[in-house]
Amino acid sequence: MGTPFIAFIGPTKLDGYNRKLSSSKQPGSIPKTFLDAMEVREEVFVQEQGVPQDNEFDTDDARACHWVIYASINTTTVPEQTDADGNLVTRKQSITTSKPIGTIRLVPFPHPPHPEPGSSYAADALETAPLSKSPAYIVDRATTYHDGKEPYIKLGRLAVVKEFRGSGIAKLLVSAATTWAEQNPSHFNPSIKTMGMEKMGALLCDEIPVWKGLICVHAQEKVEKVWARWGFKVDDAMGTWIEEGIKHVGMFQRLNLEKKEG
Ligand SMILES: CC(C)(COP(=O)(O)OP(=O)(O)OC[C@H]1O[C@@H](n2cnc3c(N)ncnc32)[C@H](O)[C@@H]1OP(=O)(O)O)[C@@H](O)C(=O)NCCC(=O)NCCS
């Protein structure tokens, strides 16, 4: 594998995406980077982990930022051939293609309420209502690291294709997403001009939700230790719940936003 490179796609209209179909059968209007993210998610979550195809794409995808990591793969098309004396007869020929091998997404607030401990959901039950119908933030129950009010962003859909695991690909993706968030904190704050004070759920200017660096993850319990390596801490009060048949825990991290916005 050559040096991997990372592509970014910000919030994008994904009208026309048919969640019943795989990424390879989507209309030409859907951006390639997003289709590549879905290709990885289908390979990992749908084929490997058994999540239904219909639940893999959700309404958060259009408003999220996505990162996709690619590997350059060199494939020999014609092997080198030599004659009996060892003289070169045919030079080796190869082609280099790039393959999406990992992805992650970052969903801005608002989010649906924290899952109830002990509950069981399908992924789409946790989707946020279309932004036009929801306020900029909701008041949630307080947990260990979240007071129920502070706006937080959510990292998720972290997936690395099986044969590329264990080489730091997920680490690169998490680092790309958190660095971008650190450099673009105001990206997440709603604009009064486009939303209006009422829809923001704020009456006074100082009640307007502002992102202060809090990041949440709904982590599969079996990879909780992986997220912990990147600074996320289990939120005990969030408890555990089942999402798509897989046990999850809530984890939080607070980024230091004192660095200058890029
Ligand atoms: C979890 C997943 C994304 C990790 O991808 P990866 O590219 O192999 O991870 P990395 O190589 O970047 O490893 C990151 C760190 O976690 C550790 N790690 C990786 N997998 C681990 C595991 N299953 N258990 C414990 N530690 C693990 C690595 O040793 C590494 O530690 P280091 O930075 O101290 O060396 C990948 O296994 C995957 O796609 N799993 C299936 C989908 C999934 O469960 N997604 C998470 C949803 S919450």
UniProtKB/TrEMBL annotation:
Gene3D superfamilies: 3.40.630.30
Record-level GO BP terms: UDP-N-acetylglucosamine biosynthetic process
Keywords of this entry: Acyltransferase, Transferase
High-level lineage: Eukaryota, Fungi, Dikarya, Ascomycota, Pezizomycotina
Molecular function via GO: glucosamine 6-phosphate N-acetyltransferase activity
EC number in record: 2.3.1.4
Domain N-acetyltransferase: 88-256
Species this chain originates from: Hyaloscypha hepaticicola
Any single Pfam family the record assigns to this protein: Acetyltransf_1
Pathway membership, UniProt: Nucleotide-sugar biosynthesis; UDP-N-acetyl-alpha-D-glucosamine biosynthesis; N-acetyl-alpha-D-glucosamine 1-phosphate from alpha-D-glucosamine 6-phosphate (route I): step 1/2
Protein name, per record: Glucosamine 6-phosphate N-acetyltransferase
Reactions the enzyme catalyzes: D-glucosamine 6-phosphate + acetyl-CoA = N-acetyl-D-glucosamine 6-phosphate + CoA + H(+)
CDD domains the record matches: NAT_SF (cd04301)
InterPro entries named among the record's database cross-references: Acyl_CoA_acyltransferase, GNAT_dom, GNPNAT1-like
Transmembrane segments: none
Similarity annotation: Belongs to the acetyltransferase family. GNA1 subfamily.
